[in-house]
Amino acid sequence: LLAQRKALITPGCHDALGATLIEQAGLRAIYMSGYCVAASYGRPDIGLISGSQMVERAAQIVLATKLPVLVDADTGYGGVSNIFEAVRAYEQVGAAGLHLEDQVSPKKCGAMTGKALVTDAEMAERLNAALRARGSSDFLIIGRTDAASIFGIDEAIRRLKVMANLGVDAVMAPALSSLEDCRRAANAVKVPVLHTVTETVRPVFPQAQLAQTGLGMAMYPVSLVMAIVGVQRKLLEELKETGDTVGLVPAMQPLPSISKLLGAERYASFEAEIAREH
Fold this sequence. Notes:
8-stranded parallel β-barrel, 47% helix, alpha/beta, globular, single chain
């Protein structure tokens, strides 16, 4: 999918329900966003969530979907030995791959200020550890740089080239703010380039235009969380002000349809089939 260079639309989620919705929508890949997982714990994305917590959540998401799941492994949760164990753990639970970033640990969300980057040499150690750790080349190792929002597009492209030359399967460059930046990044390296779309932070471009730049993936890491927070806040305000949620019922999904989404009918059919056989 990445090799097609058609800006594969890949929404982010933080749980199995989100993954189920993404698959039902007919999309073809899922991203487990570190920001969203941290948010689900009521924490900011500043390196507070452990590798074991992230792996546990990845296992739940993978179990809920047939789609490939790419996971956010932050800076690798420690040194190169921690990275080695993280890759083994994510691969064991069935993730399709992960990305490692070049931020100093503890990291911060790419949209936050105050970020700092490690040297090329330290990032090379991280990625080489990940490449050595995987059991199969089918498990993707992706290098991510947050240089664009700190130093600009030229430094971001330089770092993408360094990562690509290490033999990773793809590279990731958040904070690309124009189609020209996307095109330059995509053309700078031989491996696919992943781009993040954050609707409330940077300009949003139609998928067709992103595909024309040659990007491998257009990720929407926090779209579901931003929407969820907005809807839930509106409902709670309505409940407090009016004493009920009647005004928001038309926007709600009927409970039976959610039960169907979650497989209640499938389990009922399975139970009936087993009962008939015995």
